[in-house]
Amino acid sequence: MKLWRQPPNIVQLQLLTWTAVLLLIFFSLLPMDGLLKSAIFTAVNAASYAIIIYGNILFLYPAFYQKRKFVEYGISVAVFLILVGMLKGYAGIILYKYVLLIKTPPADLLELLSYVPGGVLIYVLSLVFRIALAYFTLKQQTEEILLQKSQAELNLLKSQVQPHFLFNALNNIYYRVYKVDHASAGLIERLSDIMRYFVDESPKDAVPVSTEVAFIENYMELERIRIRHGASIYFEKAYNPELRIPPMLLMTFVENIFKHGIDKSRRQNRVTISLIEQNDYLLFKTSNRKIDPVTEHQTGGFGIINLTKRLRLLYGDKFELTIDSEGKLFNAILKIPL
């Protein structure tokens, strides 16, 4: 029968070790000293061992040795061993006198110091004990990391299965709709492409500019459905298709246009967008008419704030972001190095 359903942790291993030590000391003394005397000596010895071991690995070692205070560490260990040894001897004499009722002569200094050498071996064992604890701690952490990695891989597989099931379902719907309504089928296809972008491309560090632009165009076409009188969108593009940029970097501006720059009751909604490669920089501009009153989201909402933080992480101070809301137009300009 297993003591634990799972591998023992550090505390449980220490409990096992100290239980074994107590039993070993007790049964080694039992034939000569009897039950009571063996129990007393076991308690005194085990307590002194624990004080030396944990006093060293929990206090002296980290306080002095790990801080490279080697001289202070040596002195503190010597003083510590002397004090613990004398305390052990004095405790044994007191227990002999008042528990076992055995008359003993008063303890002198030399007699108490005779208990010190035994603590030296325990001190050496404390270093081994510390190494063993460090090993089991590292082993446990490694197992936890491997378990987390396995769980993450499993979750990743699950997250991949679910979207691909949805993609297949959208494709089936697309073919059914295509037979009766080509325009609606095209919108379903764009939605499928957008979802595939989120799943396959957005987790990457960089994507081709052409992929990012295709995502933006799909998004704009779906947003057009909600605009009663339509919108005139001019998108100028002049860049090397092989260029790569971080995903979702340009989307904030386009999203703000449709959230705060389109008047659904107006017949003339004109939007101008340009993405141009220029002197080792990529220049992205958006321009749209302002809807009165200008909302806070346009001039400094969470989207722009979060984008600015991300740009600082990606490019430091090598980017330029300009927001101009003066006059009748709302203009946004982003310049990033290539």
Can you give keywords for this protein?
two-stranded antiparallel ribbon, single chain, 338 residues, Heat Shock Protein 90, 2 domains, elongated, 5-stranded mixed sheet, 7 strands, alpha+beta, 9 helices
What order do the helices and strands come in, and which of them pair?
Elements: H1 10-65, H2 70-98, H3 109-113, H4 116-178, H5 182-201, E1 207-208, H6 209-224, E2 232-238, E3 244-245, H7 251-260, E4 270-278, E5 281-289, H8 296-300, H9 302-315, E6 320-324, E7 329-337
Parallel strand pairs: 2-4
Antiparallel strand pairs: 1-3, 4-5, 5-7, 6-7
Helix pairs in contact: 1-2, 1-4, 2-4, 4-5, 5-6
3D structure, described in words:
The protein has 338 residues and is an alpha+beta fold. It has two domains: 10-148; 206-337, Histidine kinase-like ATPase, C-terminal domain (Heat Shock Protein 90, 2-Layer Sandwich). The chain has nine helices and seven strands, in the order αααααβαββαββααββ. The chain has helices at residues 10-65, 70-98, 109-113, 116-178, 182-201, 209-224, 251-260, 296-300, 302-315, and strands at residues 207-208, 232-238, 244-245, 270-278, 281-289, 320-324, 329-337. The strands form two sheets. The protein has a five-stranded mixed β-sheet with strand order 2-4-5-7-6, covered by helices on one side. Strand 4 (270-278) and strand 5 (281-289) form a beta hairpin. The longest helix is centred in the middle third of the chain and has 63 residues, at 116-178.
